[in-house]
Amino acid sequence: SMQRRLNRMLNSSHDHKLLALMDVEGFDPKEVTVTVKDGKVKVLAEHEEERTTSRGKEYNYKTITKEISLPPGLREDEVTYSL
Length: 83
Description:
Helices cover 0% and strands 66% of the residues. It is mainly beta. A hairpin with a 2-residue loop joins β1 (5-12) and β2.
């Protein structure tokens, strides 16, 4: 399976700096939400599976949350990310 990683890249005067790297393998890109607010980057990944077995329905739910503080002097609109 493809290994998915969440890269938080900072772009300061064309000098790319890596703020955080997060492994979100097993999550679909649409299940990952990234917000930048109040000087922090928040990453939320949620995955839910439902399957029917001979004993009934089984649910599998997993979630990852991470909060990263931005370095001083960095504007929130300078933050970019890729999945």
